[in-house]
Design a protein that fits this description.
By secondary structure, the chain is an alpha+beta fold. The chain is about 15% helix and about 50% strand. The longest helix is centred in the first third of the chain and has 21 residues, at about 5-25.
Amino acid sequence: MSSTNLRTGLTALLGLIACGVLAQGGRSAGVTNATSASAAATIRQWGISLRDTVTGRVQLRFSSTEASPAPSDKGGLVPALWDVTGLKLESFRPDESSDFIIESPSCRVNVTTKDAGSIGSFTARREADGISIRGRGFQFDGVERRLTVSNSVQIELRTRLFQPKPASP
């Protein structure tokens, strides 16, 4: 494991520990400390790589400029849910080459189910075949690797898709 990945993992763990400690603090004037715990536990340059359990190869990599554990309905924090700013989600092929990239200014990531979603803007691109998508509102299913877009979809296709392939010798 590289030192950057180790540092990122340790930072995320320390952030969760800090959230747990702060969320268990006292209450003041009927307001829980969960809100301040979430703000206090903001992790800068957050990232997590999800690997195939059999081969150990990287399947998905979530990274962002900032991340905070998401608050639950009961005032605590949900360790698997992260509210992220500046998301970059990268999906990899079995040979660990990049398959596609999704970027969003703000969204929620569930690291347990490998999902990400937002009602805001996003871009998705696949360099291999020159496809890019922009829109508002998306849901990414990491298990199925399916992207669902809800509003204002714009798709750009590069012309090399429509050029004939060279004949093989």
